[in-house]
Amino acid sequence: MDLSAINPVLLIASLMVSATPILLAAIGETVVEKAGVLNLGVEGMMITGAVIGFAVAINSGSPPLGFICAAVAGAALSLSFGFLTQVLLANQVATGLGLTLVGLGLSALIGKPYEGMKSPTLPALDIPGLSDIPVLGPIVFSHDPMVYVSLALVFAVWAVLKYSRAGLILRGVGENHDAAHALGYKVIRIRLLAIMFGGACAGLGGAYLSLVRVPQWTEGMTAGAGWIALAIVVFGSWKPLRVLIGAYLFGGVTVLQLNLQAAGVAIPVEYLSMSPYLITIAVLVFISARGAQAAPASLGRIFHASS
Amino acid sequence: MIRLEKRLQPSRTLTSLTPILAVILTMIIGGLMFALLGKPPFESIRIIFWDPLFNPQFAAYSRPQLLIKAAPLILIAIGLSIGFRAGIWNIGAEGQYIIGAICGAGMGLAFYPADLFIIFPLMVITGAFGGWAWAMIPALLKTRFGTNEILVSLMLVYVAESLLASVSSGLLKNPDGMGFPGSRNLQQYPAAANTELFTNTGMHWGVVACFIAVIFAYVVLTRHLQGFHIRLTGQAPRAARFAGVNPHRVTILCLGISGALAGMAGLFEVAGPAGQITIDFNTGYGFTAIIVAFLGRLHPMGIVLAGLLMALTYIGGELAQLMLGLPGASIQLFQGMLLFFLLATDVFTHYRIRIGEA
Predict the structure, then answer these.
(1) Are A264 and A149 in contact (CB under 8 A)?
(2) What angle (nearest 5°) sits at the alpha carbon of residue B167, between those of residues B166 and B168?
(3) Tens digits of per-residue pLDDT, A49-104?
(4) How confident is residue B81, by pLDDT bands cut at 50, 70 and 90?
(5) Which of A68, A103, A234, B294 is the most exposed, fewest CB within 10 Å of its CB?
(6) Chain B residues with CB-CB distance to A95 below 8 A
(7) Taking each helix axis from N to C terminus, what angle separates A92-111 and A42-60, rounded to the nearest 10 degrees?
């Protein structure tokens, strides 16, 4: 065992990479839940994004195009959830579970021919001068573009929710859909848009897994990342900046655990690899024990305009 | 303009008709999907839904498989349905299934090579206990701290999978296995084997447990006060509290029952059809059982039918894989689509369609 082999600077740099897929999915889900919709299908949309992004990147040779198509695929899949829950008024928990099962099946079907292939990946941004600054260089200036996109997205969501009229309406719909409806806002339309945004973000997160983080396609490769994203939304109390912190903390645990495996710590690999899930549970318990969760008041409730 | 008008009561006829409608829709869309994949659509559907039962060539092999595959699905789904009725979402049945199998098989292997009649019953009890204990984690966290049981039970599936990987290459590894991961084969250990009770029927002890569970669930849900409390908690939590129902008790009861049944299903599988603990002996029954529970309308009898149908798609899917080279994942998609169409058609049971202005 050689713990000194773990370099803290590289650790921080790599935790940002490892947190990005979950961060993307979680920030999308934050918006969905802020609009009062609980979409448990994040895992399904992520893995669909992963396979579509991978397939498109291989066939076109262009990872950016892969990301765009993954976002479109995620949004399209989420629209089926939106149609069921908003138009046909189906139970959101059951439909979300169904979406996950459909996504897992669909992705395995599409991905079969691509197993074992290697995709073109995004090159890391390498700014001469800036990237060479010790400590700060590798942490801040030498990632691939998607890391910056995910951070920009978090700040954009934060600003829109907090300062814009659109954000206010979205939050209003999530807090009390009947009141929002009475004020003349199109509850269903707003929710459908939020659901699609969430789907696109989950798709991007999935594509980041298969195009940058791994980069390969294997069946079931998200391995619960979508569910962890859901947990992080709760952890972040539905606040974008806290979601960012949560995702990075989680990324840190994952990377540390992998580093410990590589350093040959005397803990069996299986126990290390279950640690991210155990820590997620511990965090959930901590958050719920503290009370005051501030969940949107209409979260998961069916909206049916009766008059 | 098309409007939806809420029914005062869900339509009874439609409650039993929508699953059939969903199956038909799935067949149509599934056929289209197969056509897109370049496979003959009608033949694929026939191979999946008809040939396993009636084709003279395959039926002899696949009919017994029907019970073997349906038993764990029904057993798990019965437990889940009780929880779903109370609004308690245990979606980690897969984890409870794995832990039940590990505990039960561990108990059996601890006695190896003794030959006592008590070993198998003891294994069943340990298996059920293992599943129950695993389900108690989300249950206690929910009652103690209000932690969301959906996320916790699901996270525990991944923990259980890691544990399974650990014991199959460590604690329970076959000492005579020449270094291969995996436990001793319980099928070759008569005192612990879950054998076929009548040859060529596929009927093993799991099927027996399944019948008992179905009857038990039916009686509890329709004839027992506890069942009324469970349904009340699901439909009107506030009213339930005024009526003196303790929601914590219901949570612990529902998660406990579903965990114990899932654990038992895991033990029957590992001591019977699977034979040994290996890193991937579990085949996702815990997740498919969610579909079974909904397709069966959370009703014990409905779940039996839904479980048999879902078992049929598993067997038919394997057959289609063999005959037409259909990818195995298409069946998974098929099952997911079934749930989706069911939820979509359900709108008619709860709402009336009105055309024209109000």
Answers:
(1) no
(2) 95
(3) 999 998 888 888 888 888 999 999 999 999 999 998 888 888 888 888 889 888 98
(4) very high
(5) A68
(6) 340, 343
(7) 20
* B269–chain A Cβ distance below 8 A for any pair: no
- Residues of chain B contacting residue A91, judged by C-beta atoms under 8 Å apart: 343
Q: Where are the domains of chain B?
A: 66-298
DSSP result, B30-73: HHHHHHHTTS-HHHHHHHHHTHHHH-TTTHHHHHHHHHHHHHHH
Task: Note the pLDDT of residue B58.
Answer: 74
H/E stretch holding A113: none
For residues B325 and A113, the answer to whether their CB atoms sit within 8 Å is no
What residue of A is the nearest CA neighbor of B358? A307
Which H or E element spans position A288?
helix A269-290
Q: A231 to chain B: which residues are within 8 Å by CB?
A: 151, 155
Cβ contact, residue pair B344, A304, below 8 Å:
no
Q: Select the CATH number that applies to the domain covering A3-114+146-290 from these four: 1.10.3470, 2.60.120, 1.10.101, 1.10.10.
A: 1.10.3470
Based on DSSP, count helices (H) and strands (E) in chain B, helices before strands: 15, 2
Interface contact flag, B158 A274, Cβ < 8 Å:
yes
On chain B, the residues whose CB falls within 8 A of the CB of A284 are 141, 147-148, 151-152
Q: What are phi and psi of B355, to 5 degrees?
A: -110, 135
Whole-number Å distance between alpha carbons of B228 and B245: 10
Report, as an integer, the average pLDDT of B131-137: 95
CB neighbours of residue A76 within 10 Å: 16
Residue for token pair 């629209």? A79
Give the 3-state DSSP-derived string for B197-243, with helices as H, strands as E and coil as C: CCCCCCCCHHHHHHHHHHHHHHHHHHHCHHHHHHHHHHHCHHHHHHC
Q: State whether residue B306 is helix, strand or coil.
A: helix
Q: Give CA angle at B355 (B352, B358), nearest 5°.
A: 90
Complex ipTM tops 0.85: no
Distances (CA, A) of B51 to A78, A147, A212, B66: 35, 51, 44, 12
pLDDT at B289 over 60: yes
Q: Is B31 on the interface with A (CB under 8 A)?
A: no
Please answer yes or no on whether B155 and A98 come within 8 Å at the CB atom: no
* pLDDT tens readout for residues A225-282: 888 898 888 888 888 988 998 888 888 888 888 777 777 777 777 787 788 888 888 8
Q: What value does the mean pLDDT of chain A take?
A: 84
Highest mean pLDDT out of B30-44, B97-111, B191-205 = B97-111
Look at A1 and B19; give whichever has higher pLDDT: B19
